[in-house]
Amino acid sequence: MIKVGDTLPAVTLMEYSEVEGEGCSLGPNPVPVAQAAAGKTIALFALPGAFTPTCSAKHVPGYVAKAAELRAAGADEIWCLSVNDAFVMGAWAREQGTTSKLRMLADGDAEFARATGLTLDLSGKGLGLRSNRYSMLVRDGKVLELNVEAAGKFEVSDADTLLAQLRG
């Protein structure tokens, strides 16, 4: 499992863009993790799935509410990762009102989750291989803080925990 001091895996995530912009076309766009994290401080959190109860009612809304504070404390970007496709993450971003606050990044093949060792097997529940629930503080691609939840819990990966670590 990834640990404090390790470098994020050099994989490519996907991000859905609603509008064409500089270097971004409408629809899914690749996000090479190493390149996207270079020179930045990132508040990163991951969760089992878009539109799932705890993820939609608590996890994402907490980061949306604290986005300005996280940025004021030094986060250049806030990333939400889930083992879903970019289209689902785009729809969830619209539903959650994350535009300009969070980057909703799709780990569709669970490549990032597997590379970090932070997987959650929900096959018996019809959800397949997912990401564990966690948060991490990353600077220039290196993990500074890592907060992994125990199974079924939502206690240490919330926005308040990461905000305190950023301020610490």
From TrEMBL:
| Root EC class | oxidoreductase
Coiled-coil ranges (or none): none
CDD domains membership:
PRX5_like
Catalysis performed (reactions): a hydroperoxide + 2 glutathione = an alcohol + glutathione disulfide + H2O
- Keyword annotations: Antioxidant, Oxidoreductase, Peroxidase, Redox-active center
EC number, UniProt record: 1.11.1.27
Name the family. Answer: Belongs to the peroxiredoxin family. Prx5 subfamily.
This chain's function reads: Thiol-specific peroxidase that catalyzes the reduction of hydrogen peroxide and organic hydroperoxides to water and alcohols, respectively. Plays a role in cell protection against oxidative stress by detoxifying peroxides.
Instruction: Write the protein's name.
Output: Glutathione-dependent peroxiredoxin
The organism's lineage?
Bacteria, Pseudomonadati, Pseudomonadota, Betaproteobacteria, Burkholderiales
